Amino acid sequence: MSEREAEQAPQGAGMQISSPPALGGLGRTRCPMCMELFKVPRILPCLHTFCTTCLEQLEPFSVLVLRPLDPGKTSEGARLWDKQPQQLEPQLSILCPVCDTEVDLPPGGVKALTMDHLAIDEVLLQNLQEDTPGVVCDLCSDREVESRCLTCKVNLCQFCSQAHRRQKKTTSHSVMPMKDPKGYSQIKRPIMCSIHRAKELNLFCEQCDQPVCRDCVLGDHREHTYDLINNVIHKHGNSMWELLHSTQPHMDTLERALAQIEGMGSALRSRMDALSADVQEFCDGYITAIREHRDQLLKQLEDLRIQKENSLHLQKLQVEQLLADLRTGVEFTERLLSNGSDLEILITKGVVASRLKKLKKADYNVGPGEDDGICFSPQEKAGQCGGYEVFGAILTKGVDPAKCLLQGEDIHKAWEKQQVTFTLLCRDILGEHMDRGGEHIRVSVSHKNKKDCVLKTMVQDNNNGTYTISFVPEEPGPYTVCVCVRGQHVQGSPYKMMVKRKFRQHQGVFHCCSFCSSGGQKSARCACGGTMAGGYQGCGHGHKGHPGRRHWSCCGATEEKSACLWKVEAESSQRSLVRTVAL
């Protein structure tokens, strides 16, 4: 069928619809773009059909593709090096409005795309079923269609139908009224050649794999293999059926996958809704618990403020009263001693002395009975509130730097290039141990004689009121150690620390006696100078010269972790002592 005939078939047969459906859901007779009945429909490679005019409205874009060179334009050298020379050429493409697939346009553009004749027949069938005016006779093109010749495959008006039956060549043709439902299945029009518009496509060129007319096989397809469409449809139809049957299982698999995805999506939405409700409930409860905890903290602060202010006020009254009594006693005594006679002084001496002694012995505190050592610790666990664990506590015990102590064996003695470690014990104003950490501790260690020698210190918070302080002195000599809490020196800070040169390693053994360490050898000797009867040259338990405790065989030192006391000037004698000890 020609484009003109295809355009005439659906003209005037448009159907008004209330609301435009989504692309791809308009049935088989309406264009997804204009939503009208198809007019000259074309099929894209993605098998979506659109009107020719609608496709021409799409904006094409150009991409570069590799294509084989024309054999006539390929040089001999190129043929030797490359069997199939290729070059980049521009390719016009469009995007399918339904599936967004990139579609390459043929050289002839949109009008070179395959015509969807099935859509044309379906549009015609819909117009006939709906009794839509505008479907005219294929012969006269003036009157409306009333019947169809199943032999010629043309639609006829009443006048042409009668003439069709009277003509000698067509008198035996089967003509069926259009309103007969049996005729709808045979409503298809003959498809005419696009080149020879008066000729019907009734042959199939095997070489070009396309339908042709009789004039085509006399021209461009003259030397090609061809046959009648009725003879080749079985072969090509069967191959299409086989391809269809091999493709359908994929559709079933995808449908099951889609059902699983939709099911998972539904389950996911349900799960998310449930989790959202749980999160909302949890957060609402947590917010309520936090607000309740906030109110408790604020009330605790208010109670502490009232308690401390009352205590300070009572102490203030007591101090004021004692100060007034003292001022009265002092002023009276000064006036008596300055202005009174000897007799008057002696007469009132007993009363005045008794009062002054009583005032002198009065018990009072030089400092405030309360302090402002109140702090808020956000990381402190505060138990549960409303079933939720909450954090943040009011701490009333404040650290007092003057009561903090330094503990450890390495406070005052150290050796070069060996780590020094000691502990800072924090206490409050009452001298009680602090059971929490979080204090700002500042430690500085500097060489007394070398101002540029400042050591790098490390402070580890043990979260129990103690802090481990460590550093490594690189050089021997006197050092000044400063330990500050909240910007104030702790008790004993700053202090001096003497760093000695690295102590000499012991060359002997740390033993109880020579007899035991040598396994009873008589020649074994010890630097402690002890001997035993019976010819034993070394020391033994309870014998003469034994120090009474474990000691080093090389120098006699009784501390295991100590420097060797071996003297350089006594190297010869000491060396002999050390070497005779069996290890």
TrEMBL record:
SMART domains: BBC, BBOX, IG_FLMN, RING. Its EC number is 2.3.2.27. GO terms for biological process: bone development; inflammatory response; negative regulation of inflammatory response; proteasome-mediated ubiquitin-dependent protein catabolic process; protein K48-linked ubiquitination. Residues 1-21 are annotated as: Disordered. Keywords: Coiled coil, Metal-binding, Repeat, Ubl conjugation pathway, Zinc, Zinc-finger. This is RING-type E3 ubiquitin transferase. Pfam families: Filamin (PF00630), zf-B_box (PF00643), zf-RING_UBOX (PF13445). It comes from the Eukaryota. Residues 31-100 form the RING-type domain. Residues 287-314 form a coiled coil. Belongs to the TRIM/RBCC family. GO terms for molecular function: ubiquitin protein ligase activity; zinc ion binding. The gene is TRIM45. InterPro entries: Bbox_C (IPR003649), Filamin/ABP280_repeat-like (IPR017868), Filamin/ABP280_rpt (IPR001298), Ig-like_fold (IPR013783), Ig_E-set (IPR014756), TRIM45/56/19-like (IPR047153), Znf-RING_euk (IPR027370), Znf_B-box (IPR000315).
